[in-house]
Each structure stands twice: as structure tokens, then as C-alpha cells.
Structures
1.
Amino acid sequence: MPDAALHSAAVEPLAPVFREWTLPPQRAGARAVARLVLSNGGGATWRSRGPDGLQVSYHWLDTHRNAIVWDGIRTAFPRPVAPGETVSLDVPLVAPRPPGRYVLRFDLVEEHRFWLSEVGVGTLDVEVVVEPGIADRRLAVVVHGGADARTTAALAAQEEPLVEERPAATAHLVAGAEPAPDWSRLLLDAHAEGWDAVGPAVVAGGGPLERRRAGRALRRWAPGGRNPRLDAPLLLPSLVASLVPGEHDGLPAYEGDGLFEGRAVVRLPTRSGRRPR
């Protein structure tokens, strides 16, 4: 949307003038592209040198102006921008997690040196409502390996009923798995928070010796914590519907073998005293 020109209060040579901006709806954890029009109101030419030099970027702040995400994606200038010239840029960005009210602050950075706002140069602040990562709480389930009475009963007892059509996310299980009653709710909560793929904790059944052996076998697949960079495949994932092969940040398609290698992932811990999920 157009906005009145916001002039930097700084003296030359650094004085960007933000003239217009367009921002699509924001969903937690999702990528989008903003359109930014700004002019060089200072006395020095703006130059990007690949990943170095002057870059356009952003910060996500809370409503009290505390930084939530400081280092946004960098966008280089396509050409040198001389004093008095105007340039239009497509600025890719990733919305913060969880959903809520934020301030998106567009800023310039002299890479490896300083942010312009740190030396008194003005920014463009936009108040943004970040919506949940999924529009609808609709979870479908695919069970691999045939029918199993225990799995069927556990799915029928879910806190949030499962759907067969128009799911926002699809979870994968193997026959014999018994998800806890809150499994569907926890998966949908995590997707709403902005995670594209969610992996449950896997707890083996049987006697103590069987559980120990299974635990050792599963350990290599389960790096712990809320880590968006996986170092091992993900077991029994739940994936948002937008995960299409080749169309979502390099995430591959699920191939039905119980394993998934992805990027944006949260693992839900197993609670003591609860059935395995």
C-alpha cells in the first residue's frame, strides 16, 4: 500500500527515503515478498557487491519495539543507486513465529559493519498482524502398512476429529502406532505456530529389554529440541498441505517409508504417564 514518504532524520551521506510499500498477508513461519520503493536522499551512491556492501533488510519487533527477529533476509540493490535516484525492490521475508501482532521494520545494513538505524538513519515501521501458519485446523492421517485395530481406535479417540477432505496438514503413521488423545491437537497447534513439518516422539512398546533395544535403534532418527535445521530424517511426520515437491523451500515429498528430511520442524516431547504417540 502507498504511504507518505518517510524521510530519515540523519544528515548526509546516508538518508534513505521510503516512498511506497506493499505487503501481502503474513502467516507464521511462511515466506512472502514485499514490494518496496525508496529513494537515495543522501550524498553517497548505494552499492551492493553481491552479499556485501549496502543491503536492504528488516527486523521483526514486538509491539513494545523489542527485537524478535533481528537479522532478516538481505536484498541487494540491482544496480548502484546514485543520490536522488529511486529504486523498486522485491524484498523476500519470513514471518515470525508464533502468530500475533508485530512491527516489521525495514532497515538498510552495510554488511559486516553496521545497520543504518544504529547510526541514526530512519526506518520504515509497519504494524502487521501475523496469522496462524494454517488457515484451518483440519488434519488428515495416512496409515502405512495396512489396517490395525489399535491404531484405528486411537485415531477415533482424538481430541480434534480427523478429516478426509481438504486437510490443512496430513500426518503419517505406521500400522500399530497408538497416538495419544491429544496428538491431533498438538500437531495442529504446532502447524498453527508456523512449523511446516512436525515429528512426534516415538516410544517403543513391549518389555524393558525390547524398549531399550528399540530406543537405541530410534535414537539416530531423533535429534531433540525445536531445531529448524535437521541433521537426521524425521519419523512419522505431519506435513502442511503446501509441501509440494520442488515448490516449498527445497523440502522433498513424503515417500511413504516413515522418514522425512525437512527444514522447519518442531518435535513434541513425550509426557510422563501418557500413551506413546
2.
Amino acid sequence: MNFASDNAAPVAPEILEAIVRVNEGFALAYGNDDWTRALERRMSELFEREVATFLVATGTAANAIAVAHCCQPWNSVLCHAQAHLATDEAGAPEFYGGGLKLVELPGDNAKIAPETLRTALARGRGVPHSVIPGALSLSQSTEVGTIYRPEDVRTLTEIAHEHGLAVHMDGARFANAVASLGCTPAEITWKAGVDVLSFGATKNGAMEAEAVVFFDPKRADGMASRRKRAGQLISKQRFAAAQFDAWLRDNLWLRLARRANAAAARLAEKLGSVGLQPVWPVEANEIFVMIPRETDRRLREAGAAYADWPREFLPAGILSSPDGELIRLVTSFATTDRDIESFIRVAHEI
């Protein structure tokens, strides 16, 4: 009954096999190997245009150096108040951005509305007194498991570009969003106006494999040095490239994401049958529910693993009693029907 995080899931067997296959002989270091070169070509094929791809080890690094690359130190990055960029990166964007400022915006379902963005861009006293917006960052899927549709992204990117902002997409769970939408990766990124993507594989079956993808290679000028300076140039990069190669081959990445999404849908349906309704729409692989504190205690005693979530983010109209807990349940490609049934059985008994 482990619903703590998709980071807690095992590595997909196909990816482990790929690592073993490339673990023979010698290869040039720092990305000068055949696997990395092949992956760079594959990324361009996947996104239907020439892209510049930079492999890194963590999602925090991918997000932080991506937005830093889009901004000057006196710029700000606009993001949702619940975005991982704002709540879970320990100041990494500001650190790598030389002091750039994150401006947190409100929005239902952890999504930024067009009018909210327009209002934020109209604030401030301008040069030289205010930080100048340099980038907009969108999470896909969001921190509460909701999804921006292509038309939603397009509307926001048009506003951002009108004001000279670059658009970054935090795609730690990008695979879950694409699998849910049934669109192509291109349709939800550069065709909708996204300039740079943090493309995460770790939460969806890989092991320390993340990428920063620029949809205009010219925008990536200097990124090789920035990645090295950030300590993210992987010496034995063939092992990261091999993971991405296996992950993308025959659409494994989407098959794994569909499994995780389907497990979340099943779990949400069964939670409803015992009176636990999700707080936000279940559109990817995350579920948030309010449960009584005693129920929380007994579920944990029974071996269930999940995360507490700040109640300050509860949407309007959701009651928050003093003896209640807001919890997050995350499914993965490795979540089984047995995990779900066991959790529901315990919850039902309580």
C-alpha cells in the first residue's frame, strides 16, 4: 500500500536491461558518446522539430537551470503558488538564477488563469524599481494532478510572449499528462508556445534521468557551460542516455504513464465508494482526499504510505475540520490492484 510517491517506485525492467546493455567496454565521457548523440536525434524526432537536449540527474536541477537560463538576475519567474518550483526546490531557482525572484500566482486546481497572468504582468513600478518578469513556468501535470489542455497552454503562452517572457514547462510528470490528453508531445509544448521543457523520466520508471529540452536550439546558447557550472554534466552520460532511449522506444514511457493514470482512476473510484471524495479532479496519477485524523492513524498503522499535504491550499468550499488531514496518494506504473484493494479494505473497515 505504498502511495507515498512515484519516486518510491522501482525502476522499470526495460530500463534496467538498457543500463546493463551499455555497461560493456569504454565510451567517451561527458556526453561525447554514441548513445547521447542518438538520443539527441531521437528527441528531435519525438518533438517533430530540431531541439537541443541536455541531460541532468535531478528534476530540481532541470527546473532551476532551465528558468535561470531564460532570465537575468533582475528578472522574475511567474509560477503558480503550488508549483514545485515555488514549494519544493529549496531556493534552487533563485540560487542558479543569481538572485532572480519567483512570483507566486493563485489559481483554482493549481492552474494559472489568463486574467491572473495579465494582472500580474501589469503590476510593479517598472525599471529600475521592480523585478522585470522574464519567464512564465507552467507545471504539467500540476502539483495537484490536474492538466493544462493545449488550448490552455496556448492562451497563456501568447500572453507571456506578448510581454517578452520565455515559457518554461515543468514536466516532471509530463508523460502522465501526455498519456491523459492523448495528444502528441509537440502539441502540448512548442506548438502551444512552450520554449523550454524540463522532461522528467525518473517518476515514470527511470533512475536519475531528466532532460532540459529547448525547442529553439539558438535559445540554448551557453547552456552547456551553465550545466557544467551547476554540477550537472554527467561524466558517464551514456547510462542516462540509455535510460531515455529505452524509455522512449516503442512508447514505453506512455505505456508506463497510462498504467499509473489508470491505477489512480481505479483508486479514486473506490475511495468514493467509502465516502472519500477527491479534493481536485483526478486527471493524472495523484489523488488528494480529506480524511479524519483517526482514519489517518489507523491506515498508517496498517502499513499504508502516503504524504500529508498543506491544508492552506484547499480549494474554496472544501471543509477543513481540526481533526482532519489532507493527504496525497500517488500511483505509479508499479501500483497493483492488490495495493488498491488492500488500502480500500482497511479504509472500509475503519
3.
Amino acid sequence: MEYSSLGNTGLYVSRLCLGTMNFGHGPMDRGIGSLEEKQVQELVDRAFDVGINFFDTANLYTMGESEVLLGKAIGKRREDAVIATKVYNPFTNDMNSLGTSRKAIMREVESSLNRLGTDYIDLYQVHSWDPTTPLEETLSALDDLVRSGKVRYIGLSNFTGWQIARAFGISEARGFNKFVSAQSYYSLVGRELEYEVLPAVRDLQMGVMVWGPLASGFLSGKYTGKDGASGRRTNFSFPPVDTQRGDAIVEVLRKIAAAHDATPAQIALAWLLHQAGITSVIIGARRIEQFEDNIQSVNITLDDDELATLNQISQPATPFTYLDFSLQRGETLEQRFAQLENSGN
């Protein structure tokens, strides 16, 4: 296993992170699968065996059961683990249950600590942007948690580029502890992160945790062509995929996988691990066999031609806002527009 520092910190985490969304039972199962305590223990034990020290959960996952099962499975190995959990989503319909107000954060951190069976959380992440709470209030509460020792580092999830920059600016001005990482959806069939989020976090020296690296299994090749109407994606087609474009990407994955004696899923994960600024890729599994397959991705080295082929087949059309009209030294307007036309935009 390889390890990377989490952003601009001295905390080192494994390049693969074990996701726990399917630990336990809950209203969000939606075909994802539900793992019992014995299965969770087997998966966590195996993760430690192969060098994974990074585990991602959330207060919402299976309504708290995920945190309980993860805490039990880690047990006495707490100091060997980096536990990441999240706050934002509600458990009840109470007016103050949703979001990242000081009240909600202080209540939920205590609940997560209790469920995990620990006295501190390594990485506490805001699960979503909260438009109903002043950002200063959220950041102040998180800063207090870090200073109290209940939380070691703070991160964010599913923010846009401007939201990340605004949070960083407020923390800088107020002397708050800053977000050290961003957790976002990124895959060969979902590369929107490259437009503003990745440039923002790279500039701010933040770490990046990728969720949905296989687009809910789509990039495993199980749900393409005639098989597209079967399996978990018939119940929960999220994140959404342009299936025509996605099928073409999977075909390329199959060809490259054959050259490496690998699977399409392993190549899709390896592609992410080759991208600049990606700290860790979150993998989830319903069966130990899936987990064993996924972890082999860290041993795959893609050459420049393979990366170029994958980049080309998966490159979406660039939105007009992100077209680069700036001239380079010695370049003419005609040359710049010709290049934009040739890029397909």
C-alpha cells in the first residue's frame, strides 16, 4: 500500500480508503447492499492486513449504524486507524436537526464519538454546503472542536470551487483552523471536478478524497449494453451516467485491462490514482472478492499512451465558461481560436 499526506498536514493516509456506506441497514440501502457485523469485521480486518489505515463513514450512513459497526470492527486498533466521519444530514424532522449550525455540530459530534466508541475523530467533514447557516458560525464551531481535541482535522464534502475558496478566506482572516481536504465525486464518467474544484484544492494545498470512483459499479463493466437494465443501478442510478458515452469508456477499459491482466474496475481506479492532487480513493464492497479486486489497483502503472487514451475517450466538452481564451506569449488570436476549434469546443 502507498500513503500520501492529507493535504498540507503531517497526517498520512492510505491511497485507498475503505468506505462504509453499506455497513448495517438503513433507508438508503437502495440496492447498495447491507453488511452484517461479521462481514464488516472481515472487511475491516482485511483492510488493515493490506495496509489500509483510512476509513470513511458519516452520521447519516444507515442512520448511525455504520459508525457503530466501524468502531466495533476497529476496536483496539484505534491508534492505527484514521477515521473520517461527516456532519450535516438530519435524523429527525426537527427544525434544528439539519445543517451545520453550532447547535447541530456540537450535538452530532458527541453522537458520532459515542457511536464510534472513541474520544476523538481524525477527520470531521461537513457533508454538504449549508445555505441556511452563516459560514462563519460553522467554521467557528469546527475550530472549537479542533482546539478541544475532539477533532484532529476538518474537511469538506461536495462543495463547489467558490464555496471552498470562501471558506478558506474566512478561516484565514479569522485565524480558524482550515479545511484540509475535500471529498468529491470523480470518475471516468464524471470529470466535472476538473473545471474548478481540483484547481481550487490544488492551489490551496488541500487533500482530495474521491467518492464514487466506479460510478456505483458502472465502470466495472457490469451495467453496460444489454446488461444496463439489471443490477443495483436499476434501483439507484446515482451518480447519473451518460450511458452511450459510458459504454464507450468501458470498452476502452476492457482493452487496457486485458493488457494488464486486470479488470476494468482496477483500471478505472488506477486512472484516478494517476491524477495529480488525488490523495485517496474511497472503495466500498459488498463482498470480500470485490474488495480484493479493488485493492490491486494500487499495483497498476498506466503508461502515457494508456492515460492519453482514457483521457481522450472520457473528456467531456468544456463548458464555455471554462474555455481558455488567454493568449500565450507569441501566440496570435487566430492561433488561439484555431486551437479551441480543434479541441471540439
4.
Amino acid sequence: MQSIEKSDGIAFMKAGDGSYVVGLGPFNEFEVAPDHATAFYINDFALSSPRPWKVPTQLIEVSDLAQLGYCDSKLDIVWDELDSESFAGVFAEINEKIVKGVIEKSVPVATERGQIAGGDGDQLIGCMQNLGAPFYSYGWSSGGNGFCGATPELLFEQEGRSLKTMALAGTAKADERVVFAVDGKEIREHEFVAQTMVAKLSDIGVVERGDRNILDLGRLVHFHTPINVELFADRSVDELITRLHPTPALGPLPRTQETMALLKGWRSRLDCPAYFGAPFGLLKDGVFTSLVAIRGVHWEGSNIAVPSGCGVIEASRLVNEWRELRLKREAVRAVMGI
């Protein structure tokens, strides 16, 4: 394969067991979805990009990211100590807002950081494991900054008036599956997400909610509820992104200007990467697939970050949530070979 010019940028997505759709730069950027082009949707959590649609100069498909030649050797990373004190402070503030009735749920993020010795973050693209369903693999890099990962969470997939999405919330180690299945706190957290997703969609289409099940990701398990919608009328991709992002799995409940401002403030104080939990999409052949960009690594040059978030409700306990965050980061590091 030809050599990839890193300076021109790269974007990729793989849905389940398919091949990687890879866009090579330079990229043309647009404010809204283009009518007749394959395009990637790349925005931050705050949806602040004025031109989030990226149309690549060249489109290729590969079966393995190693074919792109990004990873020459195993990365040597020096990790910083994680700041538990700041997270504990934010956790206490969220609990205070819950007690006062301002929110029912929010999602703080703890971020582990490090430095790559003798390399840069772009190498991580070629080091990723080649995962199939139920994971969606994704990534973006431009100018030495980027992110990549393998997420189990679909924001939505749209083809015409057919839309499918999911509620994904509640987490445990795989060997705790039996107890997890009857854990009242985890079930309550999941139902917050599922019921809110149904409510957000019921006024624009006929909603069919599937049964809650357990999604097995190897190291971790999650509660998962499939949701299908037949839209009453045509809806633009950009409108649906604004309506559904962030889902209650990553955002506050209820979602208002006040509660979103609180969440953004907490993310900023905890130094959360801007693209963590953001929508990441691919428009191809009339189908738009948008992922929730979790379970990944973010970088700026040789500085890398591994964020993880947890849903905090009234029944949450700091020690348990801190443990869940660690489990999620360990799963990411295993996938990334770091």
C-alpha cells in the first residue's frame, strides 16, 4: 500500500465485523452534511465546530489498520499519577445537586495521562486490536492531534426514515454478570437512560423499545436496550445529532442549559479531552452511522490521555464509581496495546 501522509489527516470507522472505511486528507470541510459525498462527522462534545463534516480526498478500505503503517513498534509510555482528589470533589458536588433536585444524574470523567517516549500519538492508530461486533472502531488525526478507540455505543444509525439507536448504561466486570443482572442501582441507572431516549424520540416517530439485555464485551458487561424508530417525516442528520447528543449515558438528566453548563464545567476542571463522548459519524451510500466516542485514547503530539466516565445517581458511591472508571481504562489500554 502507498505510504500515508500523516500531515494531511486521516479518519476511519469500522462497524462490527466489516472493513475499515478510511478517509485520507486533505479534507474539505462543510457546515452541514453534503448531499452526494462520503463524509466523516467529527465534532467535540460541545458541538462547537463550525464545519464538522469532513470530505476526504481519497477513500480506501482495509481489513486491518496495521496496513496503514502507523505502528512501528510497541509504545513506551510514562504514565502520570491519577488525580483522585479532584474527582472526589466533583463527585461530591454532583451528589449535592442531586440532593437539591437540580439533577437526577450526571457523568464525571477521570482522565489518565502520560507521555510517549520517542514517538507520537499517531502510532496508536496502527496498534489497535482488530475488534468485531459489538464494537465500532473509529479514529481521527490531523496535525499531530487526534483520538481513536473501539466503542460499544451507537448514537444512532439512519437510512431514510428508519433510525436505530440504543440505551447503554450500567457496568460490571464480566465475572460479576450474575449479580449485575439483579443489581438495583445499575438497573436504575440504565432505565434513566432508556426511558429518556424513548421520550426524546416519541414525538418524531413510532418507537419500538426492545428488551433490556446484557452486552458482553469480554472484560466488561453492560446493560443494553435496542431502540428502533420509524420517523414520521424526513429528518436531517444534523438535527438528529443535536436532538440525541449527549445521551443520558454521557450527559446530565434532565438535559437543560443549566445542567449542561454544570457538566461542561466539571469536565473542564477534570481536564477531560474535548472529543471524549462526542458524536463521531460516517455518511456513506445514503446511510449515516454515528458512534459515541468513548473507550478510546486521545493525544496531542506525544502527550496521551485515556478518559473514562461514570453515571452518578443518588445511589452511587465514590469507591464503586472509582473502581468502574479504572476497569474501563484497563479495557481501553488492553485494546490499544498500551
